[in-house]
Amino acid sequence: MAEAIALSSGYRMPIIGLGVWRMESKSIRDLILSAISIGYRHFDCAADYQNEAEVGEALAEAFRTGLVKREDVFITTKLWNSDHGHVLEACKDSLKKLQLDYLDLYLVHFPVATRHTGVGTTASALGEDGVLDIDTTISLETTWHAMEDLVSMGLVRSIGISNYDIFLTRDCLAYSKIKPSVNQIETHPYFQRESLVKFCQKHGICVTAHTPIGGAAANAEWFGTISCLDDPVIKTLAEKYNKTAAQVILRWGVQRNTVVIPKTSKIDRLHENLKLFDFVISDEDMETIKGIDRKYRTNQPAKFWGIDLYA
Fold it and tell me: Where on this chain does substrate bind (predicted)?
């Protein structure tokens, strides 16, 4: 069983999870049941992935057959941009699809509210100019207080943010009654974001690394980006530790005290990605990895939004 990180909410989050982004709906059932059998206890979902219902079916089957108990799994999902003004309905919609009574973690997926298109619909709300229709009437503070209400209602155990920078995270700490437990961001050896990671950790916010190996094939296909999997430094270390490149990269993430949620649809990779606790990367090699940072973001939503929100 993977180790876990204590969150500021008092709950524990397994340090390795399985991300279900861009997972084929028809293969989700087998994949999640296999993952649970192998030892995964943490699943990272989102309304935007359009597969919460399939994940819910798989979880219901796992609970029904006694493969795992509800209290032994950690389920995250996320509030989509177009639902910032409808937080309670959006959360209930996700719970219904996932067939759960509560979420372990609910995240604000991106720090931007867009035109509401109806709960459960998560297409990017573009204007006639092809640019994202940003709703400037809903502040992130308003959204956050609605997230806090979900905790008081018992629908959600921990709440957090995603894709927030230092400024927005600092602001959230200032206006929050319940502090964000987690900031889920893209970070990997080519995009280390040391300042953001350290800022969050210093203020009691656990960092979850989405795209922890740089998105590999999926992001190459969508965004034309390259992954650090083929980096010569990583390959050399993989040989040294007798591990795969992916295992070295994920172990690096774990040693930075970040939670990693690699996505894979291959059973052998599911096994491989869990095997991170039988070796330690030396301080010297951690420093070497520090040297390959390219400040390189591989997940580029601007492609779909007609505007670069990170500009």
Answer: 109
